């Protein structure tokens, strides 16, 4: 918005307020009408002055509604011009003042006064509404920024806590180290896979033990089931042991790795698991039974109660 447009209108309104003050002193019979009109023009002047400061300020670019006010302010200018012309006493007053008479006479009839007041009030309300819209937008922007910063800080804090779990690298079936490991070919192991999938949908049996001799395809079946559940968004976490595979060759990081994976698929679980880590800073060094109770069972139980 060009501040010059506003400045011209502000100057007009200031002249009218000054002129109305003179009328108030010199014309006693119309003081109520004069006061009413002066208050309305003064209120408009105050609002326009605020618009001028905003248009000239550093935040003008962030107030898109300012540009939409150009037409409203342009429409205000001829109204104020017309009012100023009606109120201006011209040469008559100067002549009569020289000979000692009070020359001012209130020039507005009630219908003219009502029209001017209505128009000016409408223009003022339009401008105020636009300014409020911009201010609300700014408040939302600030709130969103603050919320985003809080979330960033919260996420950083969560990452710091979860890093203390030190999960086993390569335990997940989708890890980089396992990307070339096979799954069941189509139309193979159909009956067994159906049984396992039926188990996964049930609630009566919590553990399924897939056993057999080495090399019979247990890991391949497990990867196939894990992939199916992951696609269905029903897989919480996975841990594939590997004989002689460092941390994957024993259970010391089993529970911690499951907790780490669960924390990364559910924000509510992440909060609860991090609360446990904050409360029990040495949980990673505790016995597996305690780790299971605190990092898995307790967060899942509290999550279930809150749902």
UniProtKB/TrEMBL annotation:
The keyword Repeat applies. InterPro entries: NPHP3-like_N, P-loop_NTPase, PigL_N. Residues 194-301 form the Nephrocystin 3-like N-terminal domain. It comes from the Eukaryota. Keywords: Repeat. The keyword Ribosomal protein does not apply. Residues 6-136 form the Azaphilone pigments biosynthesis cluster protein L N-terminal domain. PANTHER family: AMELOGENIN, GPI INOSITOL-DEACYLASE. This is Uncharacterized protein. It comes from Zopfia rhizophila CBS 207.26.
